[in-house]
Amino acid sequence: MHLHRLEKVWLLIGIGTLVMFLTIVGISAFAQGHHPPSDLTTLDPQKVDTTEPFNQPGLKKIGDNEYELVIVSQAFAFMPNDIKIPEGAKVHIIVTSKDVVHGLEIVGTNVNMMVTPGHVNSLTHTFHKPGSYLIICNEYCGTGHQMMSTKIEVTKA
Amino acid sequence: MAKEFISDKKEQEIAQKKEYSLFGTFLSVLMLALFLILSWFGVYYLFIQRL
Ligand SMILES: [Cu+2]
């Protein structure tokens, strides 16, 4: 097969990009342990209220400026409602759903999770800047979906 | 008539052997590559900013 010289060049660029992409994904997944934001823990969605740690949603201090934030989502609200976190705190967010699929996004941060019933999802985020952070549900979950939001207040240390 | 036909065929062969210039196409491909690479870095920059 005859290929034009320039055709060979852009084919090489394309193949090179593919090899580079797969190498980066491979190293980050297998050597560095990166994975999509999802937890492998499961629970009975009908027994959320009696299952640890979701029987007590809220903020728990677990270390030096390190917290565990347990959130329960249901149509159309997040529990707890008002969350106050000190500036610079490292927060492990743990969330599940009692009914349908919800989303948990903290606007302006990398926190963006899918919350599926029967599954626990978790993510760690450090709040560097004080201020008000909006939490929204970004998976359509029913007629009240647009009202499903809450706020995190990050207070000056 | 017959002579003319042969010379036509010869010209066709010559035209087929000649390589077309693909420089414009090549430039377009490189521009697309640049756009993709810049988008990747843009997304990565956003991720780093929001850490
Ligand atoms: Cu929702």
TrEMBL record, chain A:
Q: Name one GO cellular component term.
A: membrane
TM regions (residue ranges): none
**Subcellular location, in the record's words?**
Cell envelope
Q: Upper lineage ranks?
A: Bacteria, Bacillati, Bacillota, Bacilli, Bacillales
Residues forming coiled coils: none
- Pfam families for this protein: COX2
Q: Which UniProt keywords apply?
A: Copper, Metal-binding
* Keyword Signal appears in the UniProt entry: no
Cross-referenced InterPro entries: Ba3_CcO_II_C, CcO_II-like_C, Copper_CuA, Cupredoxin, NosZ/Cyto_c_oxidase_sub2
Which positions fall inside the Cytochrome oxidase subunit II copper A binding domain?
49-157
Q: Which organism is it from?
A: Aeribacillus pallidus
Gene3D superfamilies recorded: Cupredoxins - blue copper proteins (2.60.40.420)
What protein name does the entry list?
A: Cytochrome aa3 subunit 2
| Entry keyword Metal-binding | yes
Q: What does this protein do?
A: Subunits I and II form the functional core of the enzyme complex. Electrons originating in cytochrome c are transferred via heme a and Cu(A) to the binuclear center formed by heme a3 and Cu(B).
Q: Which GO terms describe its molecular function?
A: copper ion binding; cytochrome-c oxidase activity
Catalytic activity field: 4 Fe(II)-[cytochrome c] + O2 + 8 H(+)(in) = 4 Fe(III)-[cytochrome c] + 2 H2O + 4 H(+)(out)
